[in-house]
Specification:
Layout: H1 2-13, E1 35-40, E2 45-50, H2 56-67, E3 78-80, E4 84-87, E5 100-101, E6 121-124, E7 138-141, E8 154-158, H3 161-171, E9 187-193, E10 204-205, H4 209-212
Antiparallel strand pairs: 1-2, 1-9, 2-8, 3-4, 4-7, 5-10, 6-7, 6-8
Function: PPIases accelerate the folding of proteins. It catalyzes the cis-trans isomerization of proline imidic peptide bonds in oligopeptides.
Protein name: Peptidyl-prolyl cis-trans isomerase
Domain PPIase cyclophilin-type: 46-192
Length: 216
């Protein structure tokens, strides 16, 4: 019963989503998966493999934002212990985005994404009632929640025990009644090694995208 209550709460908290199934074969069939390095201002590091074949537009969008410096200096603004940590909002309060959205790459939106929402998975946040509302906000799961499979665009996973330990430390911090951490965790940088490859992002241009992502 407690788990169901937590899931219902988190469903309301999650804000942004991702990309739609392409009829043609992925243009990145023989391209190795990019590796993201998330460095916090305290010097701790999380490394994640990004699943290019499973969520190509979502990964391309994340790479573009990360390598342009979009995430640098942002807060981990939401912590639900045992469930997730969330970041990627330039307003640091769940209301912001990059000024556009991308289509949701998950099965409820017509896209077969096989990545399960297990511990350490990176996935895009989205508005509950809008499957194509993801932009820049993403969450990292501390626990495993297969209930999210098909509903959110999972696109990567932490790669090693050191990364999981950093996740656990951040996820274990005290929070207020709105799940805002009482200890500030800032992102120093997020950079992605594309191994020499470049990617194109399909965006949905929306002037309201930066002000609607907090309607959860």
């Amino acid at each position: 019963m407690k788990r169901i209550a937590v899931l219902c709460l988190v469903a309301l908290l999650l804000l942004a989503g991702c990309g739609r199934k392409q009829e043609e074969e992925s243009p990145y069939q023989d391209v190795p998966n990019p590796i993201a390095t998330i460095t916090l201002q305290d010097g701790s590091v999380m490394r994640a493999e990004l699943f290019l074949q499973d969520a190509p537009n979502t990964v391309a969008n994340f790479v573009e934002l990360a390598n342009s410096g979009f995430y640098d200096g942002l807060e981990i603004f939401r912590v639900v212990t045992g469930v997730l940590i969330q970041t990627g909002d330039p307003n640091n309060d769940g209301t912001g985005g990059p000024g556009y959205s991308i289509r949701g790459e998950f099965s409820e939106n017509g896209y077969e994404n096989p990545v399960s929402h297990s511990r350490g998975t990176l996935s895009m946040a989205r508005l509950v009632n809008d499957k194509d509302s993801a932009g820049s906000q993403f969450f990292i799961l501390q626990g495993s929640y297969p209930e999210y499979d098909g509903r959110y665009a999972a696109f990567g996973r932490l790669m090693d025990e050191e990364s999981l330990q950093v996740l656990d430390r951040v996820a274990g911090t005290a929070v207020d009644s709105n799940y805002c951490p009482l200890v500030q965790y800032l992102i120093e940088t997020i950079r992605v090694d594309t191994q020499g490859h470049s990617f194109s992002v399909i965006k949905i241009q929306d002037e309201e995208a930066t002000t609607t992502q907090g309607d959860a």
